[in-house]
Amino acid sequence: MEVGFLTVMLTVLPESATKAFSAFLLFACQPFLTFMSFQRTEYQPSVLTNMLITAGLALAAHFVMVGLVLLLFAKKGADDRVRVVRFASVFGNCGFFGLPFLQSLFDTGEMLIYAAVFVAIYNLLSWTVGIWLITGDKKFIKIKKAFLNPPFIALCVSLPLFIVLKQPLSSIGEAGTFLNDFFVKLTDSFNLLAEMTTPVSLSIVGIRLAQMKPKQLFGNGWVYCSSALKLLVFPLVAFAILMIFPSVNVEVKYCVFFSCAMPTATQTLLFAEHYGGDPYTASPAVLLNTCLSILTIPLMSLLLGFLG
Question: Residue 142 — pLDDT band, cuts 50, 70, 90?
């Protein structure tokens, strides 16, 4: 993040670099991160069961939070700033930020598979319920884009391959044979792109910070409202739901909890600009949420002991 900030301040990079970085992140890094999430473990029937449970818990957490923000802002739905806050309070950066975060913290194959499922649910909901939250009009809902986006397509490729092969691609063939060497080198190449997700995503945050004046970042009260809801209330909602199901796999619990604790998604700004929300609230909301998450994620992690 500091490198991204300095490259703009020293005029090494143009301010327009975020668009190129974001496109590369969306169309190259994140799909390969999703694909490689299924290449770290062998298939087990329990994994598929836990994937379905993850999807159910992700849906439940999002819908409870949607209901909460609709209740809180029931009389202010016509305000462009409020519509941005509604979206920013529910949809987090579980893909660009959450997947690499879980990888660095746990680095287990199953955890990343569950995280990829959570991202798929996020994409499905953000292009449907999310657009409705930010526009207030169902006619803008994009069912096609809910399914035809790089992370979801990557999941549709990765999951059948995972179930059919029942082993990582790098395990195909005997060690030392041409077939095995080919797949090992292929997955190594995929992994290089996957591991770029974290540095590229944080560089984008640094670049955007360099472009924003302190007054824009800290002078908007609605931004603090979205930060409180997304970074504190949403993970607490997830925690309450998880406490209802004590027998759920612990990796599923951690995945859902941390994914809900991620800062506001960068998609907030894109949707605000495209669907008539307030970009002057969306942009600082994304940045301030990301900065504050450095404090709130460790704070929320103190609850993990109660999840078992």
Answer: confident
